[in-house]
Amino acid sequence: MHSIGSEIKKIRSEHKLSQEEFAERINQKLGFSITKGMVSKWESDSIEPKTRMIKAIAETFHVSLDEMLGLSVSEKSSPVETIAAHIDDDLTEEELAEIKRYIQFIKSQRK
């Protein structure tokens, strides 16, 4: 059975973060005061995070709320959406510009 706690743990593990680092990442981005202990309780399903915390996790780690809540979406994501979802916040402006130039190059090669 899917739980919000298991999804939070999966997101944290995929980013190779400790519970403390996970909390700090959200706190830095959105100004919350999440603690390591809160993350631990969420992951163990001792408590469920409030809606604003779930939204903060989704926004910080670029995951959909549907995914976090274990909802199946019948629509299939386009490759563009999949690629866009993998662009991290830590890219420089130059790197983003290079990606955009490459996309334009690919489009220009269409026949």
Layout of helices and strands, plus pairs?
Elements: H1 4-14, H2 19-30, H3 36-43, H4 51-61, H5 65-69, H6 79-85, H7 93-108
Helix pairs in contact: 1-3, 2-3
Describe the structure.
The protein is mainly alpha-helical and 111 residues long. 63% of the residues lie in helices and 0% in strands. The chain has 7 helices and no strands. The chain has helices spanning 4-14, 19-30, 36-43, 51-61, 65-69, 79-85, 93-108. Helix 1 (4-14) packs across helix 3 (36-43) and helix 2 crosses helix 3. The longest helix is centred in the C-terminal third of the chain and has 16 residues, at 93-108. The protein is elongated and about 55 Å long. The N and C termini lie far apart (47 Å).
In short:
With 111 residues, the chain is mostly helical.
Q: What's the rounded overall pLDDT mean?
A: 84
- Output the number of helix runs: 7
Distance separating the two termini: 47 Å
Class by alpha and beta content: mainly alpha
Fraction of helical residues: 55-70%
* Main beta-sheet strand count, sense and barrel state: none
Query: What's the count of strands?
Result: 0
Radius of gyration: 17 Å
Kindly estimate the percentage of residues that lie in beta strands according to DSSP. Answer: under 5%
Which H/E pattern describes the elements?
Answer: HHHHHHH
**Poorly predicted spans:** none
Overall geometric form:
elongated
